[in-house]
């Protein structure tokens, strides 16, 4: 890495608040590259093998049709699935033995109490950050979902909505089913993308969506949100923070991440994030296209603010460096308003100041609009089904 790129990474890390001490222990202990102890070389072998067979046999449309009726966590597995897939789902369709129901219920309540900030951070923070995670951006862009970002965003909203729901992990919730369907999609993409000449030309990996990649995505979501809530001085009890982490620990376990790689504490999560997320953030052609698509979709909703305001809020929650990478045009009046009014908005909502600040109504309208976009999953009040793809981006 050149001195210039080192400085860029350090500057971005400082801007994001993710750079830790140089003496931080390796993110998942001492590992040998390419070994089973290295998450970048761990995928999801059993379901990868099963899904490759289903794709090669042309059975995906039948599987998608069968799984339409599989929605709630306590729904029986649908009939008509290939025997090996049905056997696999029967074994994995459950919470891990270490899942704590009380913590999961507390996390659900925390999501409800802090949903104002979560909508903003997941939508305008994590969503746009994903476009400067090169592997993720390239995998999304060249997969089938990259060609229809409204549908792709709606399915992402479905995952986030089901995870944040009050009954997410309860029998009448839907997240365990949603996680398993997402796991099948990941397995399909791992089989399909290596067949794309376009993806292979830009990828620095042989197979996408390793355990390491999923952990990076977790840090761009859960760890990032936790850090921003602390940075914004949003009141949280230690029990709330622990429950929020536990929710994410269970979620990434359900996506196939091995337990030895899952951070046990927020301190470990932030240390891991500083090593595996911050240094890899960078622009790409694919990421710029995706960011413009996502912000364009958001701008189509009546948010009550200008596109310049959206650009500046992205810069505020991420950094000017990322805003520059994505070519987000400046709106300095909006920037000044956000930097003074958003902290006051939080303080008033949390009962820390007695007088409603200027700009409160505008922020409230923005939050409500983003909430409706989230609750409607990008399209309509009905669930957007998560379906297994049969190919890559058209022409890829």
UniProtKB/TrEMBL annotation:
<feature type="domain" description="ER-bound oxygenase mpaB/mpaB'/Rubber oxygenase catalytic">
    <location>
        <begin position="118"/>
        <end position="337"/>
    </location>
</feature>
<dbReference type="InterPro" id="IPR037473">
    <property type="entry name" value="Lcp-like"/>
</dbReference>
<dbReference type="GO" id="GO:0016491">
    <property type="term" value="F:oxidoreductase activity"/>
</dbReference>
<dbReference type="Pfam" id="PF09995">
    <property type="entry name" value="MPAB_Lcp_cat"/>
</dbReference>
<protein>
    <recommendedName>
        <fullName>ER-bound oxygenase mpaB/mpaB'/Rubber oxygenase catalytic domain-containing protein</fullName>
    </recommendedName>
</protein>
<feature type="signal peptide">
    <location>
        <begin position="1"/>
        <end position="27"/>
    </location>
</feature>
<dbReference type="InterPro" id="IPR018713">
    <property type="entry name" value="MPAB/Lcp_cat_dom"/>
</dbReference>
<keyword id="KW-0732">Signal</keyword>
<dbReference type="InterPro" id="IPR006311">
    <property type="entry name" value="TAT_signal"/>
</dbReference>
């Amino acid at each position: 890495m050149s001195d210039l790129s080192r400085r860029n990474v350090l500057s971005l890390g400082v801007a994001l608040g993710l750079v830790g001490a140089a003496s931080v222990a390796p993110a998942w202990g001492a590992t040998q590259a390419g070994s089973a102890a290295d998450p970048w070389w761990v995928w999801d072998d059993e379901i990868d093998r099963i899904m490759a067979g289903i794709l090669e046999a042309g059975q995906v449309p039948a599987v998608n049709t069968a799984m339409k009726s599989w929605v709630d966590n306590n729904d029986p597995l649908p009939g008509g699935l290939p025997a090996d897939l049905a056997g696999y789902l029967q074994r994995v369709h459950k919470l891990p033995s270490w899942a704590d129901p009380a913590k999961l219920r507390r996390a659900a309540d925390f999501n409800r109490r802090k949903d104002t900030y979560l909508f903003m951070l997941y939508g305008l923070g994590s969503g746009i950050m994903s476009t400067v995670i090169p592997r993720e951006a390239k995998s999304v862009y060249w997969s089938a979902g990259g060609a229809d970002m409204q549908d792709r965003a709606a399915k992402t909203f479905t995952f986030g909505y089901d995870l944040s729901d009050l009954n997410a992990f309860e029998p009448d919730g839907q997240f365990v089913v949603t996680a398993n369907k997402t796991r099948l999609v990941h397995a399909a993409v791992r089989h399909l993308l290596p067949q794309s000449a376009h993806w292979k030309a830009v990828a620095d990996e042989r197979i996408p969506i390793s355990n390491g990649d999923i952990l990076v995505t977790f840090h761009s979501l859960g760890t990032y949100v936790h850090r921003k809530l602390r940075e914004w001085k949003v009141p949280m009890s230690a029990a709330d923070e622990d429950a929020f982490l536990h929710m994410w620990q269970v979620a990434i376990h359900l996506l196939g991440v091995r337990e030895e790689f899952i951070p046990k504490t927020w301190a470990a999560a932030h240390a891991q994030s500083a090593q595996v997320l911050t240094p890899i953030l960078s622009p790409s052609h694919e990421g710029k296209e995706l960011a413009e698509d996502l912000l364009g979709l958001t701008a189509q909703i009546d948010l009550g603010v200008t596109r310049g305001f959206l650009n500046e809020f992205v810069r505020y929650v991420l950094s000017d460096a990322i805003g520059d990478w994505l070519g987000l045009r400046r709106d300095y009046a909006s920037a000044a308003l956000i930097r003074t009014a958003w902290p006051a908005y939080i303080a008033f909502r949390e009962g820390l100041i007695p007088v409603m600040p200027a700009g409160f109504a505008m922020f409230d309208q923005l939050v409500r609009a983003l909430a409706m976009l989230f609750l409607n999953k990008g399209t309509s009040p009905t669930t957007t089904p998560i379906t297994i793809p049969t190919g890559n981006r058209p022409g890829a």
